Amino acid sequence: MKILHLLYAGGTGGIEKLCKDIGLYSKDVENHFLFAHTGGKLYEEMSGAHLPVYLYSYGNKDIVPFRKELRRLCEKLKVDAVLIHHPAPLFWLACMPLIKSMKQTAFLVYAHNNYEELTGKKAWKRLLYNKLLKKAAGVVAISEFVKASVIKGSKVNPQKVNVVYNGVHVEDYAGVNSIRPKGSLRLLYVGRLIEKKGVQVLLEAMDRLKEKEEITLSVVGDGSYRKTLEAYVKDKGLEKTVTFYGEQRDVPAFMQSSDVFVHPAIWEEGFGITLIEAMSAGLICVAFNRGALNEIIVNGTTGYLVEEVDADKLSQTILMLLDMTDERFMEMKAMARKRACGFSIETLLEQLKLTVKECMDGR
Q: Are residues 129 and 20 both part of a single domain?
């Protein structure tokens, strides 16, 4: 089976990293990756790993030339299926006519987020996206939450929407996690520093715990909200317990020297791939019960779901973990690792292959 993956750009992001892993670890599917607009860090890494990548410089107005190039490439490679990853109008408008004319190729839409995030709440985008979903051979949703939102928003036939959970190469994170120093708790956040990721709420929780200097927080990532967050830390006098490290490539190293992973997203998140990475490293995860996060964290077993987006409630959960016995703490870490194995890249690849085949056969 040959699959062509459509991506608008190749920068650092969850979709791009997932596609890189698909290319690196797939054994019985031939994957190709088309970057329509621009490259970036992940494109360079994929190219450096000798994955079959194709880089162009089309914009959203270049519908006709992109459509011609896409048809040419599909025919040259003799691809069986095209997976549309990024929610770009360029892809939607270029692919719809091809779905009808290229009977030998199945076009699938990969929904990496909930319906409102994918369409931006814009009427014209919803109209185009809904038409594409109805014409496509199938839809791949990254969680049950995303599936439900796509069905509700687009009224697409529910039988066309298939859940394939994101996955990671578990072994990349499953090193020897260091034992927490007695009487302390090392928290970690990894991700973009933007408002909807909720790091500001986590910092408010740290302010509630400022007398507990044995609780420390490492913030790994960058983004437009970083200066605001750093200013808050300085204003509240949290410099001794909160450290910003910026964007880092060796995330597993940070995970191996932490105890608890905090994912304080305040929006309805479609999945949460960093939670799987953290559990693979044996970290207990804490998150607000938003979006699909309750499909990942088993509350009270592999981590904790905080029902309200509230700094006080979050700080109380963190304090409970500080006071937890070592025996119970290690038990939860082991359960987290076990849970992560169900979200391996190997599981994703097998489910994705079966889903694509079923969609091809069902056209």
A: yes
pLDDT at 363 over 70: no
For residue 362, the SS3 value is: coil
pLDDT tens column, 239-251: 999 999 998 988 9
Give the pLDDT confidence of 141-179 residue by residue, as tens digits.
999 999 999 999 999 999 999 999 999 999 988 876 667
CATH number of 80's domain: 3.40.50.2000
Q: Say if residue 15 is in the same domain as residue 109.
A: yes
Amino acid at 30: E
Q: Looking at the 3D structure of the chain, how many domains does it have?
A: 2
| Whole-prediction pTM | 0.93
Return d(Cα 153, Cα 114) in angstroms, integer. 9
Residue 25 sits in the same domain as residue 107: yes
Nearest of 269, 235, 330, 22 to residue 143 by alpha carbon:
269
pLDDT of residue 133: 97
Q: Is residue 36 a contact partner of residue 91, using CB atoms and an 8 Å limit?
A: yes
DSSP codes of every residue in 168-202:
B-GGGT-S-PPPPPTT-EEEEEES--SGGGTHHHH
Q: Cα separations (Å) of 178 from 186, 193, 257, 260, 323? A: 11, 26, 6, 12, 18
Is 307 a residue whose pLDDT tops 80?
yes
Give start and end residues of each alpha helix (H) in 239-293.
251-256, 273-280
HEC readout, 197-222 = HCHHHHHHHHHHCCCCCCEEEEEECC
State the Cα–Cα distance between residues 325 and 305, nearest whole angstrom.
Answer: 20
Euclidean distance between CA atoms 262 and 65, whole angstroms: 45
